[in-house]
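Form 7-S
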Amino acid sequence: MSRPKRAFKVMPGPKLAQFLKLLFAIVMSVILVLITPEAIEKPTDELSYGYFTRLLGSRFYPDSEVAKKSTFVVIINQKSLNEDNLTWPPPFEFHSDVIRRILKAEPAAVVLDFLLVDRRQDKSLDDLVATFSYAKNDLNIPIIVARGSFSAYGKTGIISDLEDHVTQAAGWSESGGHSAFRYALYPKDEENAAPSIAIEAFEAFCNNRKRDETAEAPASCDTRKNLEESAREMWVFWSSRVPDNSKVFQLDKGEPFEAVECTRAHLDDGPLDYIVDSILDLEPESSCPPQPWLPAHYFIKDPDNRIDEALKGRVVFYGFNLEGIQDTVKPPTTTNDIPGVFIHAMALENLIEWGSDYLSLTGSRANDYLPITADVLEVATLVVILLLYFLLAHYLTPYVQIFLDKKYKKVKYEYETTNNPFVHIKHVFLFLLAFYKNHSGRRIWLRWVKIALILLLEVLLLGAVLLGVSLYVEMGFFRIAPVNWMAILAIVGVVQFLSLRR
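Output:
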């Protein structure tokens, strides 16, 4: 005798109206991405990228030994000027003394991140010309000098006496302003483009490594030919390391100046900030930039050559940090603003780490036929998330309902047979809630638990998609900076009022 076949319950699928809701939600998401004004988009992108760097930077930034030993920064601060009773700008003789001391250490290149466009009737200009000539002709060490913009200074962006002895690089920012992330490799001004400081420094660093048989040349040096004027705008990825300046410049007690000490702190050690940072596993902020640095007057008062080893083979950046002259950036890894010269050093490190595969808002694999950008991936990610939400709501929810039906029967049995006080408290609460809402305890149980389960699944799904897209699709494959995850969260929240759930 054959057994009767069990009837298989077919779950009802979504209706046409629900498909139209999904389509409308997708269209609305795309429109929100396209119409977002630049004044909102730029700070949102930078905020997203900054938090991403704090959260995952230490895990995904290579921080190779080659990059760590590639840069050094010399800063003219107020104390450097006060040592000789100078004001800004100091005489050319001051720069000449500092640079000659740097050249003695045999660096790969020296970069001046300030403009030399005014002779100022300074008779010591000849000293600086002689120093630059000595570096180029006798030592074969390139001097890279920031030039003024074409709109302000025309074709000659520096003092004419110097231009035959130096390499000029763009001393302005095309679109980043004082951004700690946006860095144009070939900034444009009045239809003229000039290579950035990082590009020229990268060229000098690679040439130095090629000449020095004892030094390691990174593989990224082979990609220099790909860094042309059409190069993508870089989004600088900041390292979270803290330099140990005591190893760079060991000072004895009683010296006329002190060593630069760097520490870590959770947002100035505020208790609430510390708790939030600890929960999110954010890297503590540093009191120093990632690159080792020293004030300029240390180089003039270094009688026993203790800094030679620290500078040898590195690109030495020479900048300033003075009150009243604002040229600073605020990376996500430091507690305070830092001098703008450090973004050039960090951009150089990004090129050494990744070559032409540095992070940008345009994918490294993009072309005229496949224009993959951060906005394109943002739209694609939104579509994927909304589709998954739709499938979750209209195909998984009915099975959750069946699961909860069984779960309720189990809870009811526990209530009738157990002496566990927590079970009785739960049912008293459900009874009171049912009395207040005029619903049965079972309906309230199913309603609230079902919503909680669906919301939990949506949050887990959203987090998994955002993390997967940011790490593996954007950063890993297309080399796009993960700048859009906060915008996606906001847009998903906006379109939820359409109620894609059942």
